[in-house]
């Protein structure tokens, strides 16, 4: 399939705030979803009509053998310069629910995002008659750049009064989304995609039974739940069997919220109600709506359909999230005290050009937070979050097994009840975006069997800007022998005067002349 996007500004009123400058494709927002089948190839041509560089990431695709197509600007490529174009080629090997989004200057937050659905070729391991796609987005009265500026300024209130957004469902005001039509007795697969920059979305369908069968492009054993709670960048598929008669219509509930945004009547949380129509004109049934929190889907309760047991750990890495005021005068986030900043040469190009030195984490510069992984070793990440904020962390190139949550013991404040340790009781479910709840740790595992350069980052875009990012350099020796960047990708750099070889500063050895020094922590908040 060939898809062409002319990426440009779209001035649009999507939420009754008046006109806001968004970023769309071919002059429209929302961008239409892309729907394909395993075995297809998607050629996505991106022409850049913005006045900044742009790039596209296929969120959830592992890019096995094609790390350079991952689309993370200044990590695996140079951004596409204004006026230029580039064609991404994705060979679709995974079935599931994914999304395509901008990965340069956080353009996803201004609308450059759309679902990517990949159907199984042949029989799906999950049987259903029809499917329904629901995408969730947040939308604000300011552009992302303006909201980020306010959040980084320690003199401005947090959360920002502009931080309460509006909700879009399938790209339109969540109160105006087209009804879903159900036919009696049919089985529906609802694909739920949260493409937000900041907000969580809860989805429930009172009067019907819902079973989770997929999270983040990974099939799970079916689990009956009351509803799903979807963090930014996460996806769920749920199966719903329609009632056997069409005497009544029903309503679904969507609650948009962020736990760190104080409750404000009508604004936070925001409730959207949508219609499930069995028969035009039939009465709506008041289905008993109960909120049994024990029956909301939790990834620790889910089991992978492929029955892969928990991987035996070769190396465990501890990562602690924090936030501080830095010598730049900004609020910044950090893993293990390192706040991320982009290198001057894309990290992948450093790996590919530095020979044996690519094994030395120092060549990636002090702020890439590079961690070199050995080919095929099983990595466990123990991610501690001693903050009151929670973070949805996304790993590129992999889905990880979710094996355990527990309290970050030394950090739990006196007025907070420490959660108990919870482990997966069988084969763990896999996903690519995990929430690290406040005052908790999460343990995840993955096998480093996909040579490449892969980011781990918070998918709340403001926290990405604030530096909650690190870079895995996976199997650099294998990568050097097996992957070659297409010349037209390297040209994206040379057009902008960016070096495509050398260390993080584009120099040889450990000479970082030209790379800004790492800022220092002035006031540690967490
Ligand atoms: Cu975050």
UniProtKB/TrEMBL annotation:
<dbReference type="GO" id="GO:0016491">
    <property type="term" value="F:oxidoreductase activity"/>
</dbReference>
<feature type="domain" description="Plastocyanin-like">
    <location>
        <begin position="10"/>
        <end position="121"/>
    </location>
</feature>
<keyword id="KW-0186">Copper</keyword>
<dbReference type="InterPro" id="IPR045087">
    <property type="entry name" value="Cu-oxidase_fam"/>
</dbReference>
<feature type="domain" description="Plastocyanin-like">
    <location>
        <begin position="346"/>
        <end position="477"/>
    </location>
</feature>
<dbReference type="Pfam" id="PF07732">
    <property type="entry name" value="Cu-oxidase_3"/>
</dbReference>
<keyword id="KW-0560">Oxidoreductase</keyword>
<feature type="domain" description="Plastocyanin-like">
    <location>
        <begin position="130"/>
        <end position="255"/>
    </location>
</feature>
<dbReference type="GO" id="GO:0005507">
    <property type="term" value="F:copper ion binding"/>
</dbReference>
<dbReference type="InterPro" id="IPR011707">
    <property type="entry name" value="Cu-oxidase-like_N"/>
</dbReference>
<keyword id="KW-0479">Metal-binding</keyword>
<dbReference type="InterPro" id="IPR033138">
    <property type="entry name" value="Cu_oxidase_CS"/>
</dbReference>
<dbReference type="InterPro" id="IPR011706">
    <property type="entry name" value="Cu-oxidase_C"/>
</dbReference>
<protein>
    <submittedName>
        <fullName>Ferroxidase fet3</fullName>
    </submittedName>
</protein>
<dbReference type="Pfam" id="PF07731">
    <property type="entry name" value="Cu-oxidase_2"/>
</dbReference>
<dbReference type="InterPro" id="IPR001117">
    <property type="entry name" value="Cu-oxidase_2nd"/>
</dbReference>
<dbReference type="InterPro" id="IPR002355">
    <property type="entry name" value="Cu_oxidase_Cu_BS"/>
</dbReference>
<dbReference type="InterPro" id="IPR008972">
    <property type="entry name" value="Cupredoxin"/>
</dbReference>
<dbReference type="Pfam" id="PF00394">
    <property type="entry name" value="Cu-oxidase"/>
</dbReference>
<comment type="similarity">
    <text>Belongs to the multicopper oxidase family.</text>
</comment>
